[in-house]
Every structure is written in structure tokens, then in C-alpha cells.
Structure to design on (515 residues):
């Protein structure tokens, strides 16, 4: 089955509880079967935008469409199975790796895909299944969180700074794992990152959000070669200068 | 005990006032207000109970119980500040705890159906249920905030709010029951509880007093168990909206300190 989930934002506005807007009039269509990096300065509204896509929150104005239908018209749990998510930290539940990986299907009384297969997808050895999660490294935990999200067989995977708390080595391995998933399974991935180096390494497409507005979107190669917008040029210049040679800022 | 001796007991409040004044605790005003309130509330309760006991009318007893429940719900509801329906968990929790416990006591013929048993025992049931319900809701708010990431992760995996809130809910219901369980373990060793003390002073034999105390302690495990469970179940749902999104209540100014346990 070839999945081509069509995710679109239609003039989306999200109000801030402190007054003003977190997102203002965002119109966007995410490319299917590809990895899109959602970038922008902190506080730009990236994570808020992401949380609209699996309805962890709803826009105050405008619509989010999946395959042309307002996501509010779908049963919310079914939507969240189709559009999976991994957060900044793994947030694993107490228990074993297998129990965590089976959580989604088990919550509906289903057995789900074999745990070993899911672990293999995130480059973890099958014998890890029976280990307790508290003994794992941060990188392993985050990959268990990925496997747990994949157990629902999602069509879209939302990643909210999934490597923010990982060391550089673990970060690269998670990047490789996700890239592999996109190429082998045709998963649609939307990856929020504030790290331009990371976006450059993983993304097919780039969406730049600044101060709640869509500043620019397009192919990653084109964006990094020369952004089309003034905002994109400023962001790229301002972000790249202090980062060169400085390595990854600690989370 | 004469009324004059009651007035003499004010000397104890005076000692506390001296402590507060010399140590600059700034509690003098609260102490005076508290002492006056305690005096008036208890004297009034004494007169009311005197009348109720003598009339032995069930509608009147029901009215007294309803008033006690109202105060308990009002008090425990403060803990739920920020929740959409904060009085619902303690209201259902306390009323059901009272109903279940009292029904068991009467059906099993552990106490006679008389006002002088039903009213004080109900006071203990509702007082302890009130504390339990308040602890549950308070803890639930803290747990939902602290485990926000886990709750969101579970929701994002397509879990029901019930499943997503499982760990916070379990921890909160435990928190509501722990004071009762701890009291079961230490009663008689550390403390002679209020009811037993009262019976002893009023001239009951220690053997008779401990039997009532055992009854009270065991019955309170039912009461706080029922109150905690129901309060937890009615409170956790209020952290989610119809779209099964997590909605944390706005961070409020820290509430007043926990009240000590009610009489056992």
C-alpha cells in the first residue's frame, strides 16, 4: 500500500494565552513521503504548529486538513494513530522496552507488529525487548520512543526536537535511523529542529517559521544554497555564524 | 465539666499567643479568630446535637448530615481551584463514602440507628473523606503537571485520557489513602485517637474504648478508599477537553498549608 497522506494548513491562527498570536495565518502543504524540517528561532511557533497536526491542540482560526478533510471531523484517536509523534524527551512508561513498544496497539487490545521488527526499524537489537527502560542510554530510549510510535503504523511521524537531549553521536544515529525509515517505508516525517546543521543533514524540504508566520518553504537543497526570502537569508546568516566551530549547543 | 472550666481553658490559647508574640510568628490574630470560632462552632454544635438527640427525628438528622456534607465539600473543593467543576469530585466522593460506610455500619448492626451514634460517626467519615478528597485532587494537579510529557506521549499514541492519566491517577488515589493506612499502622503506639480519648474521659472502660476505636479505624479505610477513588476518577477527566487534549489548570498562587487529619 502506498500511503500519500496530504497534510495541509489552511489560514491557521493560534492565540497565545498571554494575548497576541503564536501562529498567524499559516498556509502550508507538507510534502508526502519525504522528510520536512520545520525550522525557525525558538518561540517562533514550530512546536505549536506541530501539535496541531495530531490534535494535541486545535487552531483558533483556520483548518488543518488531512487528505482534504478537517482533522476535527476524524475520530481523534484514529487520527493520532495515523499521525504519530515523538517528543523532545523519550517519556517512556515504567516497564520493559517491549511493553513500551506495544503500548499503542495494546491500548486497543491489539497485538500490533512484532516488537523485534519495530526494534530493527530503529536499529536496536531484538534482545533489548525484555530490558527495563530505566537502564537504557538516552539515545536508546529515544529510539524506543520512535519504535513505540511506529507500532501504530503511522503514515506521518511528527518529531519535536527529538535529539535535543542527546549527545552528538546519539543524535547522528537517530538522524540516520529516521532517514532510513523515510527511504525504506515512504513515511512522511515532519521534524522540528532549531539546529540548522541537523536540518541540512536530514531534510528533503524546509519550512521556515518566524514570529508565528510562514517565512519560506521549499526544497532543502535550494534553501541552503540561497534562501528565497529576506527572512530566510537573515535566519541562515544569523544562525550559521555563531555555530561554526562552536559545535552543538548543550541542551 | 462546667462552663467556667471551659473559659479557663482559654489559658492554653493565651500560652500560644505568648509564643506567637515573643517569636514574632505573626499568628496572634489568626489564633484569636480561630479560638473564638472554635468556641462558637462547638457550643452551637453542642446545642444543636442536644436538641437533635432529644427529638430523634430522622428528617432533622438528615438535615444535620447534609449541612456537615456541605461544609466538607466546600472545604475540599478549594483544592481543585482552576478545574472546571472543582466541587464535583469532593461532592460525589464524600457523599458516596458517607452513604456506603454508614449503610455498612447499620446493615451489619455495628452501631444502632440513633442520632448519638450516626451523627458523630458521620462526622468522622465525612471529615476524613474531605481530607482524602482534597489530597487526591491536589496531588492529581501536581502529577499531571510533573508528568505532562508522559501524558502527552500516551495521547499521541492514540491512548484514551483514562489510560494517559493512569499513573497520575494511581499516585493521587494512593496519596488520598496513605494517611489512613499510616494511621492504621501506628494507632495505639503513637497516638490515642480522639474518639478513644473521649470515651476514656467520659468513663468508658479501656476495653470498650478500643473496640470502638477499631471499628472507627476500619470503617475509615472504606470511607477514604471510596472518597479517594471517586474523587480521582471525577477529577482526572477535568484535565482533558472533549477533543482529548490535555488542559492544565492555570498555575495558581500556592494554596494554604495542608490541614491536619480530621478526628479519628
Amino acid at each position: 500500500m502506498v500511503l500519500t497522506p496530504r497534510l495541509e494548513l489552511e489560514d491557521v491562527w493560534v492565540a497565545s494565552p498571554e494575548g497576541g498570536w503564536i501562529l498567524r495565518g499559516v498556509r502550508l502543504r507538507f510534502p508526502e513521503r519525504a522528510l520536512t524540517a520545520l525550522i525557525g528561532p525558538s518561540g517562533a511557533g514550530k512546536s505549536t504548529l506541530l501539535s496541531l497536526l495530531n490534535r494535541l491542540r486545535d487552531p483558533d482560526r483556520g483548518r488543518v486538513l488531512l487528505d482534504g478533510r478537517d482533522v476535527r471531523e476524524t475520530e481523534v484517536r484514529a487520527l493520532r494513530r495515523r499521525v504519530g509523534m515523538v517528543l523532545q524527551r523519550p517519556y517512556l512508561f515504567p516497564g520493559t522496552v517491549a511493553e513500551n513498544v506495544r503500548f499503542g496497539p495494546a491500548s486497543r487490545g491489539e497485538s500490533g507488529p512484532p516488537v523485534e521488527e519495530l526494534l530493527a526499524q530503529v536499529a536496536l537489537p531484538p534482545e533489548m525487548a525484555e530490558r527495563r527502560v530505566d537502564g537504557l542510554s538516552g539515545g536508546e530510549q529515544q529510539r524506543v520512543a520512535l519504535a513505540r510510535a511506529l507500532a501504530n503504523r503511522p503514515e506521518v511521524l511528527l518529531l519535536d526536537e527529538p535529539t535535543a537531549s542527546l549527545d552528538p553521536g546519539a543524535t547522528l544515529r537517530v538522524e540516520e535511523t529516521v532517514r532510513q525509515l523515510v527511504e525504506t517505508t515512504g513515511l512522511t516525517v515532519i521534524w522540528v529542529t532549531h539546529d540548522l546543521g541537523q536540518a541540512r543533514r536530514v531534510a528533503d524540504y524546509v519550512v521556515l517559521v518566524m514570529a508565528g508566520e510562514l517565512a519560506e518553504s521549499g526544497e532543502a537543497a535550494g534553501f541552503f544554497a540561497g534562501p528565497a526570502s529576506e527572512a530566510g537569508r537573515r535566519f541562515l546568516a544569523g544562525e550559521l555564524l555563531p555555530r561554526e566551530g562552536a559545535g552543538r549547543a548543550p541542551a | 465539666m462546667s462552663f467556667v472550666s471551659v473559659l479557663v481553658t482559654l489559658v492554653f490559647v493565651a500560652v500560644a499567643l505568648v509564643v506567637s508574640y515573643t517569636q514574632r510568628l505573626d499568628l496572634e490574630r489568626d489564633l484569636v479568630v480561630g479560638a473564638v470560632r472554635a468556641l462558637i462552632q462547638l457550643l452551637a454544635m453542642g446545642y444543636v446535637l442536644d436538641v437533635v438527640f432529644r427529638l430523634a427525628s430522622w428528617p432533622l438528622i438528615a438535615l444535620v448530615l447534609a449541612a456537615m456534607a456541605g461544609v466538607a465539600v466546600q472545604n475540599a473543593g478549594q483544592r481543585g481551584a482552576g478545574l472546571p467543576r472543582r466541587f464535583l469530585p469532593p461532592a460525589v466522593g464524600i457523599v458516596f463514602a458517607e452513604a456506603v460506610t454508614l449503610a455498612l455500619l447499620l446493615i451489619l448492626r455495628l452501631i444502632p440507628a440513633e442520632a448519638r451514634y450516626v451523627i458523630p460517626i458521620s462526622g468522622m467519615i465525612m471529615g476524613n473523606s474531605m481530607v482524602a478528597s482534597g489530597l487526591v485532587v491536589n496531588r492529581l494537579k501536581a502529577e499531571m503537571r510533573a508528568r505532562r510529557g508522559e501524558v502527552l506521549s500516551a495521547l499521541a499514541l492514540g491512548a484514551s485520557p483514562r489510560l494517559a492519566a493512569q499513573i497520575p491517577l494511581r499516585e493521587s488515589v494512593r496519596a488520598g489513602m496513605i494517611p489512613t493506612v499510616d494511621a492504621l499502622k501506628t494507632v495505639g503506639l503513637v497516638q490515642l485517637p480522639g474518639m478513644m480519648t473521649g470515651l476514656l474521659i467520659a468513663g468508658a472502660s479501656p476495653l470498650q474504648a478500643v473496640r470502638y476505636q477499631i471499628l472507627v479505624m476500619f470503617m475509615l479505610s472504606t470511607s477514604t478508599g471510596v472518597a479517594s477513588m471517586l474523587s480521582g476518577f471525577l477529577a482526572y477527566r477535568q484535565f482533558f477537553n472533549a477533543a482529548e487534549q490535555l488542559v492544565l489548570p492555570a498555575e495558581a498562587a500556592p494554596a494554604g498549608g495542608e490541614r491536619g487529619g480530621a478526628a479519628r
Remarks:
- The two ends of chain A are 39 Å apart (CA to CA).
- Strands of chain A lie at 7-15, 21-30, 35-39, 61-66, 69-70, 83-86, 156-160, 188-192, 205-210, 213-219.
- Chain A touches chain B at residues 54-58, 72, 76-78, 80-81, 84-85, 87-89, 91, 93-94, 103-104, 107-108, 145, 148-149, 152 (CB under 8 Å).
- The domain at 7-243 of chain A is CATH 3.40.50.300 (Rossmann fold).
